[in-house]
């Protein structure tokens, strides 16, 4: 089978890893946007080696893969698929520059499934590596083998930023790069869901999509990215980890309401309407309250109103949250500082602002 070289930013042999950024460290801001106070609890940081991932030994070629993380969801609920069947779905809010870099070295003499992983507790990444090895071996006609996986990144864990999905996708891309192939996004999605039961659509690229997180399929591709927006990040629930898989599903009777939000989001993307995007995000946050209550939501909305934010945004299965601002808002740096102070005054830990 002809092997297709991996695209830049997904996976490559001996490629230099893309830098990653902590939530409380500088990211690319739109002109005139300043950062809010730093205050991310060190307990939310991933305990990973700070050494560059590079080759880690072995007797086969090394592959490197990268995957981003996200800042929770703009919209999450229950929707109709193309067959009219109710299905859980979500639309994530990307975080530029932050993610996981994985390096995988094949051990050609080791049996399939014999994998060493650094850090050793990354069980989902381990499962993803085994699945990706089997898939790549099938595509190339080579024998499945063992290998060594190293993960490098500083995505906060358990607060709804897709840390495990970032690990899993970076791993799949690194394995594919070590075989000299590129796995299609839909294949990576299937590997991710098999490895972690529910996945975020971080493998899909820049176009916003409504993604069935437990079925590895796109319910709707919106045909373009989310409108440009500035996000002031914070954490709710004292940054405590959330067990995503234990959360209840929205009731089926809520489908019509979520379909209205889906249509509104589609319109917001087509027209680049930040205000409409923020209204969808705020309503989705409110509708998620019975499933994962956030006592701080009222505070978020009050501070947003006083600071002139367009709306609020939350991780529907985590504790990261934010205020959404139109980049064209007058006096935006002052408004961001005022909003950061208002959130901190109510005991919320405030991170950086970032733009998409």
TrEMBL record:
A molecular function (GO) term: ATP binding
Lineage top rank: taxon = Bacteria
Segments of this protein annotated with the region Disordered: 1-65
Which part of the chain is the GHMP kinase N-terminal domain?
133-197
| One Pfam family linked to the record | GHMP_kinases_N
**What Gene3D superfamilies does its record include?**
3.30.230.10
The answer to whether UniProt assigns keyword Transferase to this entry is yes
Q: Which UniProt keywords apply?
A: Kinase, Transferase
* Keyword check for Transmembrane helix: no
Point to the regions of Polar residues compositional bias: 1-10
Give the matching InterPro entries: GHMP_kinase_N_dom (IPR006204), Ribosomal_Su5_D2-typ_SF (IPR020568), Ribsml_uS5_D2-typ_fold_subgr (IPR014721)
- Basic and acidic residues bias locations: 38-50
Q: What is this protein called?
A: Threonine kinase
Can you name the source organism? Micromonospora sagamiensis
Which taxonomic lineage is given here?
Bacteria, Bacillati, Actinomycetota, Actinomycetes, Micromonosporales
